[in-house]
Design brief:
There is one protein chain. The chain is built from 9 helices and 6 strands, in the order E-H-H-H-H-H-E-H-E-H-E-H-E-E-H. The model has no long low-confidence stretch (mean pLDDT 96). Helix 1 crosses helix 4. It has a 6-stranded parallel β-sheet with strand order 3-2-1-4-5-6. The protein has 2 domains: 136 residues, HAD superfamily/HAD-like (Rossmann fold, 3-Layer(aba) Sandwich); 68 residues, DNA polymerase, domain 1 (Orthogonal Bundle), CATH 1.10.150. The protein is of the alpha/beta class. The chain is globular and about 50 Å long. The structure holds 1,6-di-O-phosphono-beta-D-glucopyranose and magnesium ion (MG). Magnesium ion binds next to loops.
Length: 218
Amino acid sequence: MSKQPQGMIFDLDGVLVDTAKYHYLAWRRLAAERFDLDFTPEDNEQFKGVNRVACMNILCKMAGVTLPAEEFDALATKKNNWYIEYVKQMTPDEVLPGAREFVQACRGAGLKTAIASASKNCALVLERTGIAPLFDEVVDGTSVTRAKPDPEVFVTAANRLGLPCDVCVVFEDAQAGLDGAAAGGMRSVAIGKPEDLTGYTLIAPSLAQVSVEQIKAM
Ligand code: B16
Ligand code: MG
């Protein structure tokens, strides 16, 4: 029998906040400007949960080019600057439906909470949306070296919460993140559609459709 969950580890983009659309718009602009590529929402699925350098590698592969390191870095920076412009305009309204309420309910039930995000812009997103006080720990792309699906970001979050991985549950919208949770020996709740995702313990369209009772019964 599985152990009772004690730690809730949340991905940021696409689970707690609606920033996935801004990443998409910035990659789409770069793909059009530099490679004359039409970057579709389907292409974007591969970019979810994956760190910036890994996303650039996928884009170069899609365009069929190998870039010198200097241009590679310059393009990644350009995309990031566009993304930051969007994030600077964010308001607390862009916290996803049910997210604040669900995290609060978890804390009210005595569960520990953490963020595990690939993003190096996590601090700015938290500042704009005001949700940082809801979390005991934040682990982001500035404190880990290996990209999801490597479990490093989730295992680091569990360690910082002072909990073993088998009592932690990961909430993720990206396949790379669900794979990372499984590799770290954690149960997971997929946020999204069953046709896009696999390898999870539970699935729901958003945190508005998940209850603490369901998690405790996992
Ligand atoms: P940045 P998450 C991820 O955040 C995004 O899903 C992914 O699309 C993005 O490329 C990655 O962060 C890196 O973000 O360029 O801001 O460092 O879903 O792990 O919270
Ligand atoms: Mg995500």
